[in-house]
Input
Amino acid sequence: MENNVQNIELINNYLNKTLSEEVLKVFENRLKTDEVFKTQFDEHVILIEGIKRQTLKIEIKKAKQFYTKNKWLKYFGFGALILLIIWVCFNLFSSKQNGLGDTLNFESDFIQNYQVAVDSIVEIVGVKGTLVRFNPKDLEMLSGATFSGDSLSVEVIELTTKQELLFANAQTVSHGKWLISGGVFKIDIKSNGKSLLLKDGKTIDVKFPKKTDEKEMQLFYGERNNLNRMNWTESKIKFLDEEKYYTIFYRDTSVIDKILTKRYGVDCFKEVILIDSLGYLTLNDIKAKYPEIKSFENQKDTLRILKRFVYEEIHEDYIEDDVGLRKTDSTRIELVKREDFNKVWQWSENIDDLDVISEKVAETYVNYTNQFYKSVKISKLGWINIDKYSKEDNMSNVKFNFNIKTDYDEVFLIDERNNTILNVYDKEFNIPKNRSFYIIAIGIKGKEMYGYKKSVRFNANQKFRIDYKKITETQIKSILTITL
Output
């Protein structure tokens, strides 16, 4: 809803010819490339033209020229009444058209808010790892004016599961085509509560968490329509390159201690760690080189791999010193977090502690997966989606019918295999065969609300009945909750 208000303000400034030259170019380019925005622009122009056709402006002008102050006030009051009626009718119409869009949208639950100063480059990391970096000097107001104040509010939304997409009513559709999502994100930067735009030619740097193994993903920009449904428009940004990590290899080994060897006349050894830089490697390179590492810890740019000998406890009868451990021929390869690595240097003096540390590292960090796409430059703030088009050939034609005729329905189709959330706009729909989907439907009739949810799989063309049951508004989230 906030984006719609901002768009209307921007359109009014355009029609009033108050946009700067830079903002004007961005606006006109958006009219050519953004179908949703173009539709909203056309609807707003029609509304304004309708208002212009009212006699208010003519009557007020005549009143100023020919009538007394009281007469002028009379016409002004009559004109204000006309405007009020138009405004009320427009809002009632919009409310009716919005249907369930606002009721089913819980995106505010996912907003992260960060207050930042404007005196230097800003860098923010979201709770799921999204890294946002920008220069406050690259931002401006919607009107093209410079923003004021010494701080900004940065709002970040990270939706990486189909459940989160469903709660936020973030459908994965691009002009009617199905998308498989790798994550939906929103970046909104505000000054004094008003959203800012990037200046013409300026960008922000964003590094997104990688939550899917799907290949050939690319970036889409999103806009909501007057029904609060999301539509995504393809950009030219593709995620083809794998993120590379600077990789350091540490190896546990033994070398001759020259001082002790000279002192005692026999070969004496000491434990050391040899360090070798492997340079920049992709995760696939690392997996191929070290298959023992099944998953990777959350590191921004550096991976530290440790290869060490495994120690075993020897029998008491054979202990010749106080350690009671001896090195075996077997080795262990593991990933070590930077802040824990200082403890590794102490292992020759305290092997017991090292084993405990290594086991903890293996349990806590090696099993945690959180990879990232390569950093990209984004030219537009707002909704962003990492997607690819879904290619489906073998389809079933399904016709929906309902046990209760409602005033308005919202039907969701959720792919259990991929991050795909669709709205069923028509009573007839094509669905891939032999695939499991959730069908979730919510309808309203007067003041009553109805809900339905079921996991389905279609193998042939058929009719499908949605059996509504009465629910309350407090049960909406329960209906929208799916088993992952």
Notes: The radius of gyration is 31 Å. The first strand starts at residue 112 and ends at 117.
